[in-house]
Specification:
With 258 residues, the chain is of the alpha/beta class. It is 34% helix and 24% strand. Helix 7 crosses helix 8. The radius of gyration is 17 Å and the shape is globular.
């Protein structure tokens, strides 16, 4: 059953501005991560097809690195009426500025589906956020590697008490898992996040990752945020060369078999 708590439309914001340094290095000649091909389709094509199939009304794609290549892919997909590209000219400064670039969409009065572009996943992940009864909702995978890379979401009594890569040992929680980069926000939650972004930019925190603004909003109102557990569903964030191999040889076969 679809979420009936709000009559607002569900719109998607996708972060696709970064350079992909951990995957490719520092040059500006490599392809965009969102154009990596898995099973004959680019990541971007998979996103667009999934969102369209789940009746998400439109997609705002935040771009920076090689925006013309992403534009050509949107055109190839015949999705120009569905996908809007929003360019962040300061995309090298950090991801918080990229999300700040679409603060008007966050304040549009719609429910917002926030997504990272560099994730290969089973569509059931997005279905969980479409169908969730929680107006504001994180996804959580309890099966994660104990490295410094995963963005950890710590819960106590079902609500967030910490959200970042480096978690202080003093944080009291009863559940911890990895956040795959997808989040649903109510109109109020999205507007609150926009206000947080404005405050970070005004304070000069331009190099911060966008997770810090999400963290500030979630920890200020933890009771307003719920969680959908996706443990066991196949997905992977593409950050390093090994992730590409794992995506093609492990995650994609699991997606296709499901």
């Amino acid at each position: 059953m679809r979420n009936t708590l709000s009559p607002a439309p569900l719109r998607a914001i996708m972060m696709a501005a970064g350079l992909g340094r951990r995957l490719y290095g520092d040059d500006d000649l490599h392809p965009h991560k969102a154009l990596l091909i898995f099973g004959g389709r680019s990541l971007l094509q998979r996103h667009v097809e999934t969102l369209h199939a789940l009746s998400v009304v439109d997609l705002t794609l935040v771009v920076g690195y090689h925006p013309e290549d992403l534009g050509r892919e949107v055109e190839r997909l015949d999705a120009l009426a569905y996908v809007s590209l929003r360019y962040n000219p300061r995309f090298r400064r950090g991801s918080l500025l990229s999300l700040w670039t679409v603060r008007d969409v966050l304040r549009s009065g719609a429910d917002i589906l926030f997504m990272d572009a560099d994730v290969l996943y089973h569509p059931a992940l997005i279905q969980r956020l479409v169908d969730t009864p929680h107006p504001n909702c994180f996804l959580l995978d309890r099966a994660f590697e104990g490295t410094d890379e995963p963005v950890r979401l710590c819960l106590r009594d079902g609500h967030p008490v910490e959200f970042r890569k480096g978690v202080n040992a003093g944080v009291v929680h009863d559940v911890v898992g990895e956040w795959p980069g997808f989040l649903r926000l109510s109109p109020e939650g999205a507007a609150g996040l926009a206000d947080r972004l404005e405050a970070f930019v005004a304070a000069g925190r331009l190099e911060d990752p966008y997770e810090e603004a999400i963290r500030a909003e979630a920890l200020a109102r933890p009771e307003a945020f719920g969680v959908e557990d996706i443990t066991g569903l196949p997905w992977i964030e593409i950050d390093f060369p090994a992730d590409v191999d794992r995506a093609r040889h492990e995650i994609l076969p699991r997606i296709e078999s499901a």
